[in-house]
Fold these 2 entries.
Entry 1:
Amino acid sequence: MFVIPKTSYSSFFRPLHRTDYNYGYLTCLSSLTWIGDISAAQFEQRFDWMKTKGKEWYYCIVIGDGEKIIGAATMIVDRKFIQNFTTIAHVEEVCISSSHQKRGLGLLLIKALNALAMESLGVDKLILNCSEDNVGFYEKCGYERAGVQMRVERKK
């Protein structure tokens, strides 16, 4: 069974809560990419959807210092028909606030997702996309290059 690791540094290491809009979750994510103008009500609506309709697919964990979220990561589980019903997890939105980087917290998040995926959920493989700047970090976490990312975007 997956156990959330204890860390002497952070005040909490836990699943994302519905109230985390108020504790800087989106501010933490903004260290990774742009967020947009999201209200507390919109955040709660998305959270509720993920907890009800997406509860078997979405896993979000956060690290906090005091009452402020300083790190986060999301995993999306994909159950396949191919390869004898393999299960793959996509690691997304791994971020540590800029003032708390280089302290091992990103590694802690990745290790926690890996353990949750493989030990508790029976995931066969975890995959992620990252920038060239982050390849070294993910290699330290045990990931290796595999394939090429492609995408198409909806015109806005």
Entry 2:
Amino acid sequence: MLPAKKFADLALSMADTDTVPHFDKQAFRKHTKIFATLHPVTLVAMVKLTPEQQSVYLQLPGEIFYPASGAWGKAGCTHCNLKMINTKLAKEVLRLAWGNIHLKKK
């Protein structure tokens, strides 16, 4: 299990990252672009992966990762069950999500 505060700390450790409220969640963004969100009550986070990256994580055993519903999920938005994820895996997907935002041109 990964506590919500630990996930938030990992996200905020990415360069140029800040946090803002996003509906009932906490959003993590770089230069106004959200790369992850956290719902601290349900212990579910979302990371913006590419569809290719998402397909890799959806193959992992257990129900750690699952796609967001609708078009967001098809675009790569992936929910993470913090009750089942470990720190190493959380860092890995956060780095990917942050990098996906970082590499996009404005």
